[in-house]
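ok new one. same drill as before - structure tokens go in, u give me an amino acid for every spot. 454 of them this time. try not to just spam alanines like last time pls lmao
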């Protein structure tokens, strides 16, 4: 069957609107996924309505203040001048929309069950205002079956075209953006297939169509579960190598010379952000609903979740070797976003390390140009410092992630003990202890002896 042939008058009418860029696009949820997607639609010639339930966010955006790092205030101000981008919190303003792109949060509950309440709320808004022949695409990460579960009954009341296309946004990535990141799209009927294909091909370079919405939903969970498992494996390998007194970093570089059958991952502080820590748990929950449980997913989750405590335990060992009690130590964490080049601290393992050290009685600061302030476990706000403020009263500098603004020379020049969790410096200096490289722990005594002799 050729899904590109034929069609009823409704899908033909919407196809003409898409191809002529007369279709009005509504993006529901203007965060790190929705806002870049909205601006991409504007760039491609569509009129766009941006909807969010956060009134304060909408007012700031109308004033030209971007809520996310990847879109600058200047970029937002420029698109607002064109008068093709309207912003609202009122569902009634969406009645003329032809296309709805749902980009809302899908968190986990405390018991690790998926919380799709934001998706259901978006569906209610769309149902109340959508026209008979509109196209709805869910982009939020979720478990297989969500698209049908939440939107499938629309067609009992009014005809819509439906798709699932998982977001693949990588905040802080200056190479891959909406335009050049391949888009997976899943639909469940021929008419929706044609609409979804036409629309996404009009805004991205490459579209990969799959056979159902469930396959598209599953593909996102597979991508991030793959990463979670491999990161957990490398964190476990780092622990094994430390006990065997083998350099994990040299080991990885050696293995990476194999031109086939090996993909390079490296140890670190664990996994953060919205996707990698959560998506495997969506998948595990879905498996349990089908009478199955994945030991593999659960094991990776436990390893990654426990990584901050392992790092803190290593910090305690380092401080013990230089005869410094944790309660009188000043420690600086270098990197606070859940990854380098990101202001996003959701599920940030660096923040967790900060809090664990604070609870042990240490005086803790952090450095990250992308994260201006944090709310720590005591409920107070703390602002970041600069590398120039790391003076001799600092007992330990912990490097937890990388960023484009890293001043390697300044870091290397500080006269303090450094614990390099990610081997950022690749240094053989006597003041650097490297995670996964047990013989570097001798640098604690070497640095202490040198300090005492000054």
């Amino acid at each position: 069957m050729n899904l590109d042939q034929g069609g009823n008058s409704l899908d033909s009418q919407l196809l003409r609107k898409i191809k002529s860029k007369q279709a009005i696009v509504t993006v529901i949820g203007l965060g790190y996924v929705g806002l870049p997607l909205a601006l991409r639609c504007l760039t491609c010639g569509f009129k766009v309505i941006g909807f969010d339930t956060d009134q304060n966010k909408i007012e700031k955006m109308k004033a030209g203040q971007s809520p996310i790092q990847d879109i600058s205030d200047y970029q937002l101000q420029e698109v607002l001048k064109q008068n093709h981008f309207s912003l609202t919190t009122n569902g009634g303003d969406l009645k003329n929309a032809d296309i709805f792109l749902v980009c809302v949060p899908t968190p986990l509950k405390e018991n690790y069950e998926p919380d799709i309440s934001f998706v259901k709320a978006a569906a209610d808004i769309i149902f109340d205002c959508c026209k008979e022949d509109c196209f709805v695409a869910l982009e939020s990460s979720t478990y297989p079956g969500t698209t049908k579960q939440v939107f499938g009954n629309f067609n009992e009341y009014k005809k819509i075209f439906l798709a699932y296309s998982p977001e693949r946004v990588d905040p802080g990535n200056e190479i891959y953006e909406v335009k050049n990141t391949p888009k997976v799209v899943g639909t469940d009927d021929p008419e929706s297939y044609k609409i979804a294909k036409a629309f996404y091909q009009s805004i991205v370079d490459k579209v990969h169509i799959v056979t159902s919405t469930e396959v598209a939903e599953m593909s996102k969970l597979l991508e991030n579960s793959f990463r979670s498992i491999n990161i957990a494996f490398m964190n476990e390998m780092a622990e094994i190598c430390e006990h065997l007194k083998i350099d994990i970093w040299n080991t990885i570089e050696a293995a990476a010379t194999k031109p086939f059958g090996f993909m390079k991952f490296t140890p670190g502080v664990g996994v953060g952000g919205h996707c990698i820590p959560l998506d495997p748990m969506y998948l595990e929950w879905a498996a349990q609903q089908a009478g199955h449980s994945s030991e593999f997913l659960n094991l990776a989750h436990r390893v990654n979740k426990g990584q901050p405590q392992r790092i803190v335990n290593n910090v305690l060992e380092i401080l013990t070797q230089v005869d410094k009690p944790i309660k009188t130590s000043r420690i600086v964490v270098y990197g606070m976003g859940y990854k380098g080049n990101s202001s996003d601290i959701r599920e940030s393992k660096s923040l967790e390390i900060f809090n664990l050290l604070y609870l042990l009685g240490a005086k803790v600061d952090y450095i990250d140009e992308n994260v201006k302030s944090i709310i720590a476990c005591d409920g107070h706000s703390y602002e970041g410092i600069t590398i120039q403020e790391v003076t001799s009263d600092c007992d330990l500098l912990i490097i937890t992630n990388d960023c484009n603004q890293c001043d390697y020379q300044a870091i290397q020049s500080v006269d303090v003990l450094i614990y390099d969790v990610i081997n950022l410096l690749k240094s053989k200096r006597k003041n650097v202890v490297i995670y996964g490289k047990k013989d570097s722990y001798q640098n604690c005594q070497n640095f202490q002896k040198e300090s005492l002799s000054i």
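The domain at 9-211 is CATH 3.40.50.720 (Rossmann fold). and btw The first strand starts at residue 24 and ends at 28.
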